[in-house]
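TICKET: design request
STATUS: open
ATTACHED STRUCTURE:
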């Protein structure tokens, strides 16, 4: 997830370009392949998700309710239609400096964990509850959580990995449509909505420097590997 500082459009163009290159490679290996209706539908949904995430990024940058001043907000990163949605509460200095969620140590640690679990990083999207980079996240306005609700709806993940109790409390307080209340039970897959599971784990930022904290995070996070392995193929 670690990447140079970029605009929201840059990240979405990169994803779109990667998928285009994959499609070109498939076409060159089988010149008679004809796209199916399902392929076309998926492409349209992806295009719409990219446009909507770009618009969300613009709305976030132009938000007048946040006291962050001239500092840019921290945007989400990853695939616009990811199966796995990683959620932290607020940004750390490296994320604020680059303007991208999960930039720095937490992103590197998560990439290693995903690789260990044999989970495709292209199936992951990560973001923050509080997108305004302030010393005290409590100062953030309600607009942040409203934008998070839009973000969840756009990505439409199959599972949300909720990191830490502040993120869990924020998600529960949002009262998403038809959502049940989640409990801070590490490693337990719960039902958030009819279409979205949830996995609660300790916050990755609090688990990087102490051995027992690392073990606690891994013990809970490794459940995601079992969930991924059981995911039906497309």
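STATUS: resolved
RESOLUTION: sequence designed for all positions
ATTACHED SEQUENCE:
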């Amino acid at each position: 997830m670690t990447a140079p500082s970029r605009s929201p459009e840059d990240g979405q163009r990169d994803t779109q370009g990667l998928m285009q290159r994959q499609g070109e490679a498939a076409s060159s290996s089988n010149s008679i392949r004809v796209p199916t209706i399902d392929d076309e539908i998926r492409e349209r949904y992806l295009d719409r998700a990219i446009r909507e995430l770009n618009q969300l990024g613009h709305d976030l940058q132009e938000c007048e309710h946040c006291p962050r001043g001239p500092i840019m907000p921290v945007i989400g990163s990853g695939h616009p239609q990811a199966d796995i949605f990683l959620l932290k509460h607020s940004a750390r200095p490296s994320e604020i400096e680059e303007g991208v969620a999960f930039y720095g140590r937490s992103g590197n640690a998560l990439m290693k964990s995903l690789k260990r679990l044999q989970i495709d990083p292209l199936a992951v999207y990560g973001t923050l509850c509080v997108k305004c980079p302030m010393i005290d996240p409590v100062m953030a306005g309600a607009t942040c959580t409203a934008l998070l609700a839009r973000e969840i709806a756009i990505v439409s993940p199959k599972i949300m990995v909720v990191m830490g109790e502040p993120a869990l409390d924020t998600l529960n307080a949002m009262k998403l449509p038809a959502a049940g209340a989640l409990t801070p039970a590490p490693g337990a897959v719960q039902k958030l909505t009819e279409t979205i599971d949830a996995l609660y784990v300790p916050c990755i930022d609090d688990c990087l420097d102490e051995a027992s904290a690392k073990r606690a995070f891994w013990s809970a996070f490794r459940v995601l590997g079992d969930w991924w392995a059981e995911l039906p193929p497309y």
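CLOSING REMARK: The mean pLDDT is 82. Strands lie at 77-78, 84-88, 124-128, 159-163, 189-191, 197-201.
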